[in-house]
Design brief:
Blueprint (H helix, E strand, L loop, with lengths): L1 H12 L6 E6 L5 H12 L3 E6 L5 H9 L8 E3 L17 E6 H4 L14 H5 L1 E2 L1 E5 L20 H11 L13 E2 L2 E5 L3 H6 L7 E4 L1 H10 L1
Parallel strand pairs: 1-8, 1-9, 2-4, 2-6, 3-4, 5-7, 6-8
C-alpha cells in the first residue's frame, strides 16, 4: 500500500522519488518469502538482494526456486550452481543475490566498478532489498563500498550528515531502484535514529506473535 501510494503521489506531483520501507519482523517471520510475494504482487521483474551476511543465500534461493508461486522466476548469484547474468532470459522475472562487498566494491586497480558487476549498476531495478540490515556497518567501513566520482569531496563532507548509527542514504548508492525494502529482526539503530518514519515501518515482534497466538 505504501509503495503504491508514493507512486500515486509521484504521478500527481510529477516527481520520481523512490520509496523506502522497513520490515522489522522477528526471526522465522518469513521475510524472504514475503519479499518475493511483494515483488510478485507489485509486478516486479528485476529484484536485487544485497546483504552483508552471505549465509542467508540458501534461504533466498530455496524460497524462490522451490515454491510453485514463483514458477518461471530465475535466480542469479556467484554460486557455481546458479545462473549468471549472461544466461538469464530477460523476458522473465529474475532475482540477483549478492553481497555489498562485491556489488558495491571497486576494482582496486582502476578505482572503478568491477567489470563483471557493470550490468548491476546500469540496470534500474524494480526493487532493491537490503537483507539482515542490522549487519550493515554504515560507518567507516561503508565508505569504501560506494563509487567515488568528481563530487568525492562533497560526498565526504556530507557523509556525517547522513551517518546516523546504522542509517544510510540511498543517494550514496551507485545503483538505482524504484523501491527500497529493508529487512531485519533487530533494526534497533535504524529505529532509534529516526531513519524511517512511522508509516515506513511494519513491526512484527515477539510480543505481536504471542498476542496473535493467544487470540488464535
Amino acid at each position: 500500500d505504501y509503495f503504491r501510494r508514493i507512486a500515486a503521489e509521484n504521478k500527481k506531483k510529477n516527481e520520481s522519488r523512490s520509496p523506502k520501507f522497513l520490515w522489522n519482523a522477528k526471526m522465522r517471520f518469513g521475510k524472504t518469502f514475503a519479499a518475493y510475494q511483494l515483488a510478485k504482487k507489485m509486478g516486479f521483474s528485476k529484484v536485487l538482494v544485497l546483504t552483508f551476511k552471505l549465509a542467508v543465500q540458501s534461504a533466498w534461493r530455496e524460497d524462490l526456486m522451490t515454491h510453485l508461486d514463483f514458477e518461471g522466476w530465475q535466480f542469479i548469484s556467484r554460486h557455481e550452481d546458479d545462473l549468471k547474468y549472461e544466461q538469464v532470459n530477460l523476458s522473465k522475472p529474475f532475482v540477483c543475490f549478492g553481497s555489498f562487498q562485491d556489488y558495491l566494491g571497486v576494482d582496486r586497480a582502476t578505482g572503478g566498478i568491477k567489470a563483471n558487476n557493470e550490468w548491476v549498476h546500469i540496470t534500474n531495478w524494480d526493487m532493491v532489498v537490503f537483507d539482515e540490515y542490522h549487519f550493515g556497518a554504515w560507518k567507516e567501513n561503508a565508505r569504501g563500498l560506494f563509487q567515488q566520482d568528481d563530487e568525492e569531496a562533497e560526498v565526504d563532507a556530507d557523509y556525517e550528515t547522513y551517518q546516523r548509527g546504522n542509517a544510510y542514504d540511498e543517494s550514496f548508492l551507485p545503483i538505482t531502484s524504484d523501491h527500497y525494502l529493508f529487512l531485519s529482526g533487530t533494526p534497533f539503530r535504524a529505529l532509534n535514529s529516526g531513519e524511517f518514519i512511522e508509516e515506513q515501518i511494519y513491526n512484527w515482534t515477539y510480543a505481536n506473535e504471542q498476542q496473535s497466538k493467544r487470540d488464535w
